[in-house]
What does this fold into?
Amino acid sequence: DAKTTQPPSMDCAEGRAANLPCNHSTISGNEYVYWYRQIHSQGPQYIIHGLKNNETNEMASLIITEDRKSSTLILPHATLRDTAVYYCIVRETGTYKYIFGTGTRLKVLA
Amino acid sequence: GAVVSQHPSWVICKSGTSVKIECRSLDFQATTMFWYRQFPKQSLMLMATSNEGSKATYEQGVEKDKFLINHASLTLSTLTVTSAHPEDSSFYICSAGGGSPYEQYFGPGTRLTVT
It folds into this structure.
């Protein structure tokens, strides 16, 4: 079973920040959190990952709570091209294996 | 990030025939490859994990004799859907792992339609 829970859908105005939450209350101390997104009929695209510290790259920022039981993906200035399903994944320890949850369908509105 | 390709991108076949889908990692050596299937408006479901040179490990409920996986090299894995039926129609996605820390790189997917 997926180790993460996410809201099924969210809307965001173009140009505004999109904040996508994820709960992973059973995460273990050495398990990473990954975020991917999937645009319709394409393979998932890597966004960012983290362990304990907050992370930022050219696409997004990842904020992980101190107890690591939840995280938030932030797209700082959402565009229409960011409309996609966003998946938060906790990788099984010691393996490459991902179990996808249901994801959040983000719709960026003009 | 690393590049993973799939071929074909879409295929239509008749019921009862077999279809082979290729997954290639183009710029790195993939020690592990994964195969997923995705039905419309649903999430990705992991079917199997394959390590180069060894037998694939199938997830519960996935028929290993129906979905044959071969991972003969560090850059190529194949999925063969044998005796395909209309209910096998789906979007099949592969991914490759080989970097650190355990990132997966996904292919663009193959849409299979069985008539």
The two ends of chain B are 36 Å apart (CA to CA). The mean pLDDT of chain B is 91. The longest strand of chain B covers residues 90-97. DSSP finds no helices and eleven strands in chain B.
